Amino acid sequence: MEVQVAPLRAWDDFFPGSDRFALPDLKDISKWNNRVVSNLLYYQTNYLMVAAALVSIVGFLSPLNMVIGGTVVVLVFLGFVWMSHNKDILRKMKKQYPTTFVVAIMLSSYFLISYLGDVMVFMFGITLPLLLMFVHASLRLRNIQNKLQNKMEGIGLKKTPMGIILDALEQQEDSINKLADYISKVKE
C-alpha cells in the first residue's frame, strides 16, 4: 500500500483553548495509550511541523552535533525494533509497556550521545520535540473526526508515516485485531 501524508490540521483544532484538553485517567493505562496513539496519528503532520521547527533551530545552532544525535537515535530505534522482533522478552516488554520501551530507546540514545558529543543538542533537538508530542497527545481530547481517521488507518485504508512507526512499536495491533474480529462477526 502506498504511504500517504496526513493533512495538516488547523491550528485552532491542534491547540485550542483549555476546553479540549484534560488530564488522562492514569489508572486506565490502556485508555491513555489509546488516546496517545489516536492523537499521534491524527495530528502527525502538525507534530512533524513543530518538531521540524525545533530541530531546525537547534540544527542551525549546532549542525554537526544534531546530525550525530539524529543518527544515533535512528540507529538505536532501529536496533531496538529489530531486537524486539527477534527476542521474545523484548517483544513482550514492548507490547505490555510501550512507554518503557520508548524511554529505553531515549536513555540508550542519551548515553551514546553523551559519549560522542553534546548532550544539550540531544535534549533540545531530539527529546524536547518528542516530549512536546507526548504531552499534547496525552492531554488532547479526541473528537469524532480523530476517531474516524484512526479507524481508517487501523483497517489499512490509509497508511501514514506515523502509522508505520506505531506499527514498528506494535501499538496498532490490538485495534486492528478488534476491528477484524468485528468485521468477521458482521459478515456472519
UniProtKB/TrEMBL annotation:
Pfam families xrefs: PRA1 (PF03208)
Keyword Membrane: yes
Signal peptide range: none
Main location: membrane
Membrane topology reported for the UniProt record: Multi-pass membrane protein
Keywords, comma-separated and alphabetical: Acetylation, Cell membrane, Cytoplasm, Cytoskeleton, Endoplasmic reticulum, Membrane, Transmembrane, Transmembrane helix
Cell compartment(s), UniProt: Cell membrane; Cytoplasm, Cytoskeleton; Endoplasmic reticulum membrane; Membrane
Gene Ontology annotations of biological process type: negative regulation of transport
GO CC annotation, single: plasma membrane
Keyword Cytoplasm: yes
Transmembrane segments: 40-61, 67-85, 97-113, 119-139
UniProt similarity note: Belongs to the PRA1 family.
Database matches in PANTHER family: PRA1 FAMILY PROTEIN 3, PRA1 PROTEIN
The name this protein goes by in its record: PRA1 family protein
Gene this protein is translated from: Arl6ip5
